[in-house]
Please model this.
Amino acid sequence: MISYQIEKLNPKDYNKCSNIWDMEKKPKMAKMFYDELVCGNRITFIYLENNEFIGEGSLVLRNNDPDYTIPDKRIYLSRMNVKEEYRNWE
Model:
């Protein structure tokens, strides 16, 4: 039986996101996302299938660009990412 879950990402599990995207190819981005997660500026939700990280999506609360976020009014939906072999299902 297949088990599906959506969970809020715990920063201690952040490296498991490398199952979804290649964090080693983008180390600056990976560090920025991790730092935002730890400080509370980024909330990330993980889609799991049988406890395997398959997809992620994040909400960014603050950004220095008003086209993305407005404090206490608008947040930014970021990182809607799915593991490559799970994309384009029919």
